[in-house]
């Protein structure tokens, strides 16, 4: 008889709450099923989208017979790093001109956060990072495993379905001086609630007065408002004051390169000398983790960013995606208004980006899944990109039924 496995004590891990939604959706045989859990853009027909400009770039890369499959350096594709910093900080950023920025290519946003977290755990004097409540579910795990202590600051106010600005300022003001503060650059996930430019300025002043270290997560540049520059304003405000910060960038959403895992970590330092030393230590974090990053996705991004025609084509396609999501918000708001659904639903059009925090509770979400075959995370977050003009009425019916029957 075969002996017990040496792994017999390994217990079944729980399903990832976000990825688990897709697993349940895939098992559902209803023709009316709708997946609003996944954070990926869908067309009006509900299909994944590959941007035309991405296909063009890939064709150019395939046709270039001088390209080889050699390893990249530890820090990745130099051209990609340079162009990524320029995209987020601005072409005329003094920090870039003074060589105070070090950028390393990482495995999308998640990998950038993890590399940044591990670097801070080794080299920063404070080991506590304050993250907004709520935030993307993976933030807590990424920073904890990187060796940091995770605490939260107030961010979302369920009563107004908007920003708890007073609570945010109070919590960051009370945090020990020099704490790391995670900030969503734009299109806060999961709430879709962003500070105004005036509020960002107050947050910046508070963070600098407390000598906190800002760590930005930028997953949606250009995808939130349709403007690459507008969506980078919060970041540029912090770089313009000459202070230091970290920036995790992802091209999953704004170029639709989800599975290519293309991202970058930039650290803005006080001097070029410090930036050079910081980069040397980032290499020591990356080398034993994955050695060096993949070449294909970063080459696509670099091809598009360095060519003015392709860059312009990308901005047009990007704006079209952002505009479609904004249209879905309007259509859902109008559909709920037409049904006379109880409550104020104006937050649907006030929030920004891929996600809407509907305000529905877990009981209402479960009801909508059971009765209407609509899948979303239990906190009531829906992906607006998963909606289409055809499916808005079905969702509005489900929300109306959940709110009227369950209160």
From TrEMBL:
**Classification via InterPro entries:** Aminotransferase_I/II_large, Asp_trans, NHTrfase_class1_PyrdxlP-BS, PyrdxlP-dep_Trfase, PyrdxlP-dep_Trfase_major, PyrdxlP-dep_Trfase_small
The record's section on CDD domains has: AAT_like
Which GO annotations describe the biological process of this protein? amino acid metabolic process
**One Gene Ontology term of the molecular function aspect:** pyridoxal phosphate binding
CC cofactor: pyridoxal 5'-phosphate
| Family note | Belongs to the class-I pyridoxal-phosphate-dependent aminotransferase family.
More info = In eukaryotes there are cytoplasmic, mitochondrial and chloroplastic isozymes.
PANTHER family per UniProt:
ASPARTATE AMINOTRANSFERASE
Q: What's this protein's function?
A: Important for the metabolism of amino acids and Krebs-cycle related organic acids. In plants, it is involved in nitrogen metabolism and in aspects of carbon and energy metabolism.
Spell out the protein name for this chain.
Aspartate aminotransferase
Organism listed in the record: Manihot esculenta
Cite the source lineage. Answer: Eukaryota, Viridiplantae, Streptophyta, Embryophyta, Tracheophyta
